[in-house]
Amino acid sequence: MDVISQTNRTMLFEEFNPEKLDLITIVGDVKGVDSLSDDKIKEIHQHLVVKSFDEFLDKFSPKVYSFYNAANQKVMYTLEKPEGIAEDCISEIHIDQNNDFLKMLFTLIDTKRIQGITNVDFKFENLLDMISPKKVMDDIRQVRKEIHYLYGQYEELDDDDPKKLDFGDKLNYLFEDASRNYNNVMAMLPLAINDIKTRLLLGGAQEENQAEAIQIGMLTIGDNGELKIIEAPKSDNTELMVVDENSNGLITVFEEDYDSVTETPSSYVRDLVVRTFCPLPAVQEQIDIEMEVQNYNTYLEFYKNAKDDFVKTVKPLVEKILGVKMFFDQYATKNKGMQPSLLITNTKLDMIAKSTNIPRLATYLNTVNSKNDFSDTVWFAIVPSIELESSGNSKVSRERFKGNKKVVKQDGNTMESLSMLLHVVKDFKIQVFFSFVTGEETTFNHMATSGIDRYIDKCGVLVRKEYSEFAIPCIPNFTIIPKDKSGVVIDSKMLQTEEGVKISQEKEDILKLWIEGVYVGASYVAAGIVAACQCPEYLRESFRNVSRDYPGVRFDIEAGDNSLKAVTTMAKEISGFTNSIKDSINRKNFGFVFSSENAQLQGQDIRRITVYKARSLAMAEDGFDSIYKTLVSTYIERILRFQTSDFKQDNIVKFFSNNPSSQKSKWLGARGFVNSIIQDGDDMNYIIDDKSNLCHIDLVFNGNVKNLEVTITKGTTAAKA
Q1: In what order do the strands lie in the sheet with 74-78?
Q2: Given Cys at both, which of 8, 26, 306, 657 links 531, Cβ 3.0 to 4.6 Å?
Q3: Looking at the record's lineage, which domain of life comes first (predicted)?
C-alpha cells in the first residue's frame, strides 16, 4: 500500500451538466504531445474528480431549465439550456438534495433497504406522494417551525450578544432557502393550493377528503335548555387576533424580504408568503368562494400537468444522479481508508469516441496510467446505457384500445462507441463496467423470466478480442420504482355545492401522474462494490482475516461466502431466479450478475442484493474469466515496473528470487488473508526469453494459468552467468 495507495479510481463516461467543463475541453489539442503537464492534470482533477456524492452535486450542480410558453399556456422543461431565449425568461431548477423528486427517491431507497421487502410487496404509494402539494407543504411547515423558533431566540438576546449573531446566521440561511422560490411560480403553486384549501375548508378533515365549509361558532344553551352552536359574532377588534409578538415581527421581515428579492412583486403572492410562514388564527377578508374554487382547480390542474412534464424531462438525469449515489453508497464503512473516487468526463461517450477526440483521452490516460506515480491511476470505468434491441412487438395497424404511447427513447451508447473505448483503454489496463439501457426489459423481473441469452448475443462482438478481459457486462439493472407502481395522486378537485365547498370523491376528479418507473444501471453498483472491496478497511467490516498492507485486488467475491458478506446496499427486488435460469448462468459464467435470492449467513437472513458472478468477456475453460485475475495481473505488472525500475533484467530476477526479502517471498509469506496477493493454490513463475527480449510471467490462480508479458530493459553491460 505504500507503493500503490489506491486501486479504485473510476472513470465515468457520462454527461451531467453541459454548461460545466468536460474532459475533452480541458485536455485540449494534443498534437505532438505525449503527456499532459502536472498543472493540466491538477486542473482536470479540480473540475472533474469527486470523492463523495455531495461533492459531485456541488461540482456539477445538475439542473433542469424551464420557461413558459404563452402559445400553449404550458411550462416547458429541457435538460440543455435553451438558446435564443432571454436569460430572464429561463428558470434553473437545481436537482439536488432539496429537490422534492430526488428527496422522495432517496427516502424510498433507504426505506426499502431497511425493510428488505421485494418490489411486489413494498408499498411504493406511501412514499410516492412526497411530491404531492400536501407533502411539499409538510416540508415548508417544518422550515416555518424552525424560523419561528430561531426568531424567538434571536429577539430575546441583546443586539451585540455573539449568540444572537449565530442565530442571525441560521435565520439568514433559512430565509435564503425560502426566498429562492419567490420568483418561481411553480414552486409557489403548492402554497397557493394549500392556502385556498385552508381558507375555504379551514383544514377540516382534509385527509379523509370529507372537508366541508366551516363557519366558526360558539356553543350555547338556548332558552328552553337546548344545546346550540351559533355563529360567532364578528368584530373588528384586533384583540380577537391573538398572535404572538414574534409573528408580528416576522410578518414585516417576510414582506420586506419578498419586496426586495422579487423582480415583479405581486400583492397576492406577498400575502401568500406571509400567510404561509406566519399564519394568522382567523380569516380576515371576505372570500369570493366561486373564484377561489375556480383558482384552486386551475392551480391543481396546472401543477399536475407541469409536474408530469417535469418528471418525464428530468427522469433520465435523475437516474444518472442516482447511479452516482449508488456508486458511493456501496462504500459502506465506518472507518474510511482507500475511499473510492470518480473522475466524471461530463461528456457523452459517442463524443469521446470520435476519431478527433480519442487522442485527447489517450493522452490523459497515458499521463496518469503510464507512470510510476500511482496516486492518479485510473483502474476502472463505468459506461451505462448501452443500447439493447427490444424484443420485437408485432405491429398494430389499428388501435382498438388505449395502449402505450410510443415514446422516443433517450439516446443510449452504441456498441461501436464502447468497442472504440475498449480498444483505447486496454493499453492502460482499465476494466470497463458497462450496463444496458434502463427500463422494464433490463430488470430482475425480466431476466427471471427471459434469462441472459439476449445479453450474451449482444456482447458477441466484444468476445475474443484483445480487449475482452477489460469488458465487464453488468446485469440486470436495478428498479427503484416499478413502472406499474409509479402512480402519484396529486389531489382531488374542489366542488362548490349548495351545502358549501367540498373535495370531490369522484374518480374522474382525482388528479394523478405516472412516473413510468425509475431505474439505475447495474454498472454503477458493480463498479461501486468492486471499488469498495479494494479498501482493506471496508473488507475488515465483514472479514476477520484482512491484511492492511494490501488492496483487495485478489479478493474473489465469487469464492465461498464472500458474496454474502460483501453485499450491495440495494434491497432485494424479486424472490429469486428459477433453477433453470441459475443453471444457465452457472453453465455460461457470463458477466457481472447480481442476485436477488433468499440466503442466510450464520442464521441471519440476507435481505440485500448480492453478486452472483463477477466475470469479464475473456474466454476461459468454464465460460468466461473472473475479473479479479485481470486486476491482480495489472497490479503485479505495476508493482514489478516500480520495483525493477521499468523491468530491468537483474531486478526482475531479484523480484522473483527465493530470497526472503524478494517481493515474491513476501507475498508467499503473507498468504491466509482474504486480500493476500498470492493465496493458497496460487503461484507465480517467470521465464526470460533473451531472443525476443521478453519476460513471460505465469500467474497461477487455483490451477488456472494467466499469462503476463513485459518487455525487458537491458543493462549497459551483459551480465555473465
Answers
A1: 74-78, 63-69, 91-94
A2: 8
A3: Bacteria
